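Hello,

Following up on my earlier ticket. Below are the two sequence lines again, exactly as submitted.
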Amino acid sequence: MSYTSLGYMLFVACCLIFYYIFPKKHRWWVLLAASIGFYAIVCLKYISFVFVTAASTYAGGRILEAYAQKHKAYIKSQKGIWSKEERDLYKAKVSRRKKWITAAVLLLNFGILGFLKYYNFFADALNVLLNPLGGGLPELGLFLPLGISFYTFQSMGYIIDIYREKFPAERNFGKMLLFTSFFPQIVQGPISFYSDLSGKLYEGHDISFSNIKQGVLLITWGFFKKLVIADRLVNTVLTIPAEYEKHSGTVILITALFYAVQLYADFSGGIDISRGVSQLFGIDLAENFRRPYFSRNISEYWHRWHITLGAWLREYLFYPIAMSKLFQKFGRSLKKHFGMKISKVLPVSIASLITFIVVGIWHGAYWRYVGFGLWNGLIIMVSTLLEDKYAVWKKTLHIRDTNKLFILFQMFRTFLIVLVGYYFDIAPGFTAALKMMWLSVTDFHISELADPALLETLGVNFENLIVAAAAVAVVFVCSVIQENSRKTLRESICCQSFYVQAGVFLLLFWVVAIFGVYGPGTNPAEFVYMQF
Amino acid sequence: MKTVYLKRAFKLAAVGIAMVVLYFFFADLLKFNNSNSEMHVRNFYREPENSIDVGLIGASEMYADYSAPLAYQKYGFTSYNLCLAGTTGGVYRSMISEMLSRQAPQLLVIEVNGFLYREDELQDEAKLRQWIDNMEKNVRWADVIENRVEPGDRINYYFDLLKYHSNWENPKDLLTRQCDIDRNYSSEVSLCKSMGIRTQTNNEVTTGENKNKLTSLGESYLRETIDYCREQGLTNVLFFRAPHNKKLNKKTNQQLEDIITKSGYDYVNFEYISEDIGIDIKQDYFNKEHLNAFGCEKFTDYLGGYITENYDIDTSHTEKVDSLWAECVDYTVRVFDTLKERTLKEEGRYYREFSDMKW
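Thanks for your patience. The regenerated structure is below:
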């Protein structure tokens, strides 16, 4: 049951009816039943994995909290008896044990994720060494349970927060299970923080006409992006890179551009559907995209693209690394030899590089994803290190940051950097990605753009190309309006008269219904991020 | 407060109604499979109720080889070709049930080619859709979907826009269909009662034996059709094989004959007597499977005579029906004169009853 299927929409409609019929206090039970039901329909075979994650997170949280409370009380009772050193020693011991409990839960859950997702990758890599010695690890036919990356990250964020004593542990297992498996977001996120989502999930919401209108509009917009744009281009993106040697650099470059459009439309469209469905229940999910292709530098891009994954990694990986004793020591040693600036920037840049390598590996167990992470991490590292130099160059050339042409140049430059990263995504391997980049530069012929055979090679006919281009133009115009407005576009639409609201909805709906790629004879494409 | 809720309910209802209206508008606008077959089905519903004496069910052979108005002109019985291009025996039961829901034919004539396709052809979506998507949406429509379509695909039949929405890519075809509809509805009823003839003689004469087999699926459809006719208490049912260049192999023919005659119905293979009918293999076909205007006239004459001789058809009709049929005869005779003239010139154009004859 894909998010774009009619079955899913009927499922959501039934859940909505039950949700608003139930007494307010017990409405979260409907969400829980719907989430378990959804998972069972889509992926019954692996439902136990969700239960294991929810149970271990729940138990881990409760144990951590109980342990911390018990020892806090004990320390309090020893006030006046223990010296400061004795108290600190005991606190350190407690902290160590808490770390062990947290590590055990993290190890179990990331262990499951890592084993299922990366075993074959590491086995392959190890076999390069082991095979000549006559040994080797077998390749296992492993399958990823639906949404495992997303619900594992979300739950592990919770356990780390409990370790940090940010909020009390959840006392109700059902509620923890709902937080782990909330059906609109389990397939591809957004990855939410417990502190943001839990209250919204457990509190029963009143039916709101405004939420329903905005939710429906957001879902339809998501369908527009997914069915009208992404699925129209997906065939090219899947077929050309697989046999890139047969194609010219022009075709490869256009395919990469198609991918940039297709990936954004697919992922952000899917997130719009998730957020729209949640809004029907009165639940606001975190924003995951803020017009990423308008970014002026790669750091900004990562604050606008897959925002929730970025936030998660910043909170639970980047800061812990950058603030770790090892990195602080490294910074101090740099200060002695290279001065203040380097001692501040280099450790942060390295932490950032490590984070991006993790981002790459999170996408999949392939060297090309490592390349993707390295590329992004290195660009951020280099731009952080050269920040001062840029400022000098800009001053010398009299370029102001507010100059519109310069802003456009920055956006274009950032897009190109992102585009290079995408080659690692679409290529069949790491070296293939490099070769494809090389071909895009050395084998690009502008004359090919006017060749009618180009469309045939790309597997798109003229009519479909025009529809895709028009739809991209609509998304672009809406993004420009949104970029310059505080309100969301749908909020603005919902403030208009009934006729405007109904007109916009009907127009959007029928554009999707007619120009969407779906139905018999088409091969419906899964959401790209579902595989991660 | 109450007014607010009422207003909202009204607004929601208005959007809902607009959605439904737009659905039907787009579903009709974008529907395109085979406009010839579509008009044959549409026109069937335009015939006055209980005005048809002989109902004919079959594939393209029927509307190429047999002309109902010409048969009426000579023998006085009214008939209708409820026939679609390449339609399969799998929907014959549904076609008969639809025929019986509006008409009380004294004789039902069924061409057997629809049972002789390969199994994949028997389940071909396009062939199924020519009937299902064009018939009236009623209980029998839902019934044929339930019986003939895989459960996962049924939704695409109930909401056929799911299938046809991408036809925006073929604006030329959609425009052609709209023109066909426009021309088709210029008369009160169908004037030729389904027709599809090319103005040429067959330039690829093939003789010998047709190797078509009655597959187990084809046989099950045949038996299902026979059972349904018996359930409906039909006594006069004629199964037949229309003339083709290559004659049906004896084994399959015997199989058909055994099954049909054992059930108490009649079976005739007109291929085996096509020389008696006077059909000239070089002059009377427009391709190896369909007769041209000359062949159609000959076969209509023969089949009409056969029906009149073997079945006691009451040819009395109301004045209104006779007047409508007289109009059909006038038109069809003119059409056939023109078609024959153009066939002699080997014009090679395909004419449907709503084609612009430009005479």
